[in-house]
Amino acid sequence: MKSNVTNRQMFFILFLTLTTYTTIDLPKIVASSAGRSSWIPILISAFIFGISAVIVTKLNNMYQGKMLYDYGQEIAGKFFTVLIAIYYILLYFLIGTYLKIKLATLLKSNFLPTTPQFVVLIFGILLFGYVAYKGITNVARVFEIFGVLFILTTVMLSTVMLLEGMSENILPFYNSNDAKNFLTTMKDLVTPYTGIGVLLVIPFSSVNKKAPKAAFLTLLFIGFIYVLLVEGTIMVLGLNNTITLNDSFIEGIKVVQIPVIERTDIFYLVFGLLSMFAGMISVYVAVLEYSCKLFPRIKRIILMFAIDVIFFVLSLFGLKINNMRDVFESFAPYLVIVACMVIPILLFVVAKVKKQKEKA
Amino acid sequence: MKKKYKILLLNFLIIVLAAFTAGCWDAIDINEKLIITTVAFDLEGEEMKGYLETANIQASQGANTSQTNAKKFNVISTPSKTIIESRAKLETKLDKPVFLSGVNTLVLTEDFANKYLIEYLYRFRADEFYRKKGNVVFTKQSPEELFKVAQEKDVSLGMFLSDMVDTLEKEGRIFLRSSERLIENLSSPYSGILILNAGTQDNEIAILGYSVVKDNKVAGFIPIEEANGLLLMKSKNPKLSYDVPYKDLKLTIEVTSKKPKIKPFYKDGKISFDLKFDCKAKLMYGDKKTPYDLTDKDMKKIGDFLSEMLKNELENTVAQAQNTFNCDYLQFDDIFRIKYPEDYEKLDWENEFSKISITIDVNVDMSTTYMMDYNTGEPK
């Protein structure tokens, strides 16, 4: 199965996977700790994770045509690579489950209040599984379409929010009293960057030579998009309302007035859901690719159904947990730092040292 | 997998998804819901009274001949002890589930607001089905009187009020605070805001002025006739008319203004503000036959006189906020907070506001409206 992507497709994979986690409740999360200075920790996080994305892409470029599971064996040996693969599978099962519950909850509260959530889960999981089964190249092609629609809608609505909102709500841009909470905010911003790890399952080719630069700029772009939607929400709703309302971005969208589009929230959710679907497909692809490598004798389609079942069972358990977001956020940032920073950096350093030794 | 199985699976998924996204479980025809257009609350003694105005869709469509003479909007009300009880009791009088996204205006009496404003607005914010674009309007009268006038005209009170305030705001005749802004202000450590006050006048629904909300209570009322200074300060595009006496003439001048430039200062523990207004004044007409033979010097004198008039009006507006109500509904706190965020957090604005020194400077740019001479194509 062909599994290459272009740099443009990589941009959309990163963009959609990363924005999945955040757009709807991001303003509430960051404004709760960093107030009107939220844009600062957002941009710092984007910069830090931009460096992380550069390392991941450089690592992939060092071993073109291979994914982490293949080149990991050359760098760290088979035993450690299998451990790393299992770690990623478990992590993406957790994240995937969290995202599916989030999707089911979002659909229930906005579109399907009486539809049983397990029905939404069954169809969601089957669909995402099928798309992931088609492989990363096809997924990347779908993402190009989803991505353009999602960027246009998000930027347009955020801009309207900035135009209709009150500048008093976001000023001053910096308050020294907020600065002491920046670390807490940055910890809350870690989980959205899980998508960087998905790049590790994509074998790079010669067309990805400029991938590190593209990945870094993508992360900065995502940072600016986050800033745009957080500032837009605060401008329209005010700081207190943004902190109080759970889906503050959606509430902010409801308040703005655009000619012709009476229900701006539904308009956004149509495209916002595309982003959520994309994020879940990415996570699914990662689990499936690692599983295929770990169990090469089992057919891809059988693995896909097995993953479907596991996701479904985990999601049913997850639905029973109260305050799922708080439970998830209490441990997820540490797991994500290990997955997206610690492991790639360690592998990159070891790979560099090995290459230096080989040269010597 | 064989190709035909793939296609079958894909078709199956598409059909199932189409059904799922269309929300078969949840489909409720809009005719099966009661569209709420206005919510109102009053307090009589210890007992509150809740009102719901619902749209009678069948009467509006005239679909059913027996309904064609029916009112387009129905009002139901119920007395209760608490807000929860009120909602529960109101719903027992309805034959269909309510649709709250159609609420245009919340009408609250000042008595109700004095006791339940925070509780009700927090409830409003927490209920995701409420239409947050709606306006909040206070009234001194019983909502029953307002509904009665609206029913006589066969219009929705909420929709009528909503259209009226939108029109007046666009024309620069009033300034409006949305429900979101009201809740935001009331959630801040310091709260002071003006809310539109509606009532009946000569058996017509009208905007009568502004209720001063200080903390979570109604602290006073400013009639709309005395709110010119407020408009100059807070409206995005105020448009006011003044009668200015000059020599033996009474001149009518239209004044428009941009938002004032406000500069806060904080020195030696003292707060002060400089307000600078750039107004454009247009001489519209006088009360005598033309020609008036007004020279540039005359125009300057008229401009200076008007400038002094506006300055007095603005000073009175500030004095009213500082001394009469001791309430910063002019939102000087926001301007100060933006410039001095750390100092603001240490200050008790409630104590500071009345002591603030405010300097006002008004600059008037006078011009005249000329009649066009169609023979020469030039103004005459």
The CATH superfamily of chain A is: Hydantoin permease
H/E topology pattern of chain B = HEEHEHEEHEHHHEEEHEEEEHHHHEEE
The poorly predicted ranges of chain A are: none
- For the largest interface in this structure, which chains are involved and how many residues does each contribute? A-B, 35 and 31 residues
What is the number of beta strands of chain B?
16
Structurally, the number of domains of chain B stands at 2
Strand content of chain B: 25-35%
Give the terminus-to-terminus CA distance of chain B: 88 Å
Helical content of chain A (DSSP H or I, runs of 4+): over 70%
Rounded Rg of chain B:
27 Å
- Helix amount of chain B, in percent? 25-40%
Structural class of chain A: mainly alpha
Structure overview:
The complex is a heterodimer of chains A (360) and B (380). Chain A is an all-alpha fold and 360 residues long. Chain A has one domain: Hydantoin permease (Orthogonal Bundle), CATH 1.10.4160. Chain A has helices spanning 7-20, 26-34, 39-62, 68-110, 117-133, 136-164, 167-170, 176-179, 182-188, 211-237, 239-244, 248-255, 264-294, 300-319, 324-359. Chain A is globular. The relative contact order of chain A is 0.22. The mean pLDDT of chain A is 88. Chain B has 380 residues and is of the alpha/beta class. Chain B folds into 2 domains: 29-226, no CATH class; 228-380, Nutrient germinant receptor protein C, domain 3 (GMP Synthetase, Chain A, domain 3), CATH 3.30.300. In chain B, a hairpin with a 2-residue loop joins β12 and β13 (270-286). Chain B is globular. At the A-B interface, α5, α11 and α12 of A face α1, α7, α10 and α11 of B.
